[in-house]
Design brief:
Layout: H1 2-37, E1 39-46, H2 52-63, H3 69-73, H4 76-97, H5 110-123, H6 133-144, H7 146-153, H8 164-168, H9 171-174, H10 183-188, E2 196-201, E3 213-219, E4 238-244, H11 260-272, E5 281-287, H12 289-295, H13 316-337, E6 348-352, H14 358-379
Helix pairs in contact: 4-5, 4-7, 5-6
Length: 383
């Protein structure tokens, strides 16, 4: 009898412990569920070269701890690759242009042809050598050659990366044996996003008290990366869509027959029509305004099929503003044309951005943050 009672008590104790463990698990799940409710899921989308990865890096710098020394050093090889690839594109482009009617201005000096062949060969490799003083000097000689400068002026016809001028003007510093990239170097560094990367952060300032947390997902923008987006579409608070407005006269890296702006238009249209975004807020970043305001004064908008009816009305800053407002209106029209009647109440905001300008990105994100918080309060019936 005593043994039986002891055995029953043993089972009772085990059951109590098991119940306590189950209750603890349920408590944790409830806590995590509550925590998840405070997390705003943001999806950063855009075509390749839209500058969205720079936006991602800026937010990491602004709202997280930034980049530690190990992370900064990891960009050395990326920056080296950017330099070798850029100089190869320019050298190969000069040879191509030298076959044209007005060929003389694209012909390099004899000495620089030898250097160009050497650097083009390096640029064709998968394993780039570390940039040193000797290589930096040779790249510098080639960069300053009038033929290369003429080629660079026609960079829109090639696939010359936006970071080219910045890195070419900083070759001596970048080739130092003890070089550690600066935050600005990292922002300029061009590396394609493959797969999905994410960061979680709380904005600084007054919103910090409210416990708002954002989880930002950045996904590859090239065509072959887009199939990886699909599983991220559910439960998104807002889509931040980046469109590089300076690319109206350029073609895709992966399809040189396709205009980049037309690709962006079609991609934006496709994203807008996804059923899972029925109530999702849309934040459109018209990006790379700094490049756009220089280009639009010399390259007419109507070289792009989407902007074929554009008519310039002025010069200088007035023309820049006129051109920008025209593009903004085209995207707004596309948004409303692609938005079903039952989705017209979702939030849609357009922002002018320059991803490389930290002040602009900080100000823009503050506006996005305010918009999303107001939306949440409205849906909760508190506004």
């Amino acid at each position: 009898m005593g043994l039986l009672c002891s055995k029953n008590r043993h089972y009772t104790d085990a059951d109590t412990e098991e119940n306590a463990q189950a209750a603890e698990i349920e408590r944790r799940i409830e806590q995590e569920t509550k925590a998840e409710k405070h997390i705003q899921k943001l999806l950063l989308l855009g075509a390749g070269e839209s500058g969205k990865s720079t936006i991602f890096k800026q937010i990491k710098l602004l709202f997280q701890t930034g980049f530690d020394e190990a992370e900064l050093k990891s960009y050395v090889s990326v920056i080296d690759a950017n330099i070798y690839q850029a100089i190869k594109i320019l050298y190969d482009g000069s040879k191509e242009f030298a076959q044209s009617v007005d060929s003389s201005k694209y012909v390099l000096s004899g000495e620089n042809k030898v250097i160009g062949e050497k650097l083009s060969d390096i640029g064709s490799r998968f394993d780039y050598p570390r940039l040193n003083r000797e290589l930096a000097e040779e790249i510098g000689y080639l960069w300053k050659d009038p033929a290369i400068q003429e080629t660079y002026a026609r960079g829109n016809e090639l696939q010359v990366p936006d970071c080219t001028h910045y890195f070419m003007e900083n070759l001596q510093r970048l080739s130092d044996a003890n070089y550690v990239p600066t935050k600005e170097d990292v922002l300029y560094a061009r590396v394609r996003t493959t797969g999905v990367v994410e960061i979680q952060f709380s904005p600084v300032g007054e919103n910090k008290k409210s416990g708002e947390v954002y989880r930002l997902f950045d996904v590859g923008g090239q065509r072959n990366e887009r199939r990886k987006w699909i599983h991220l579409f559910e439960g998104v608070t807002a889509v931040i869509f980046c469109a590089a407005i300076n690319e109206y006269d350029q073609t895709l890296f992966e399809d040189e027959q396709k205009n980049r702006m037309m690709e962006t238009k079609e991609l934006f249209d496709w994203v807008l029509k996804q059923p899972c975004f029925e109530k999702t807020s849309f934040m459109l970043f018209l990006n790379k305004f700094d490049i756009f305001e220089t280009k639009v004064l010399t390259v007419p908008l109507n070289v792009c099929e989407w902007f074929k009816d554009y008519q310039p009305v002025s010069t200088g800053k007035q023309e820049i503003e006129h051109a920008y407002k025209y593009i903004k209106k085209k995207f707004e029209e596309l948004y409303f044309q692609s938005t079903a009647p039952d989705r017209v109440d979702r939030v849609f905001k357009v922002y002018r951005t320059t991803a490389l300008d930290q002040k602009v990105v900080k100000k823009t994100f503050k506006l996005v943050d305010e918009t999303l918080r107001r939306r949440n309060l409205f849906e909760a019936g508190l506004l």
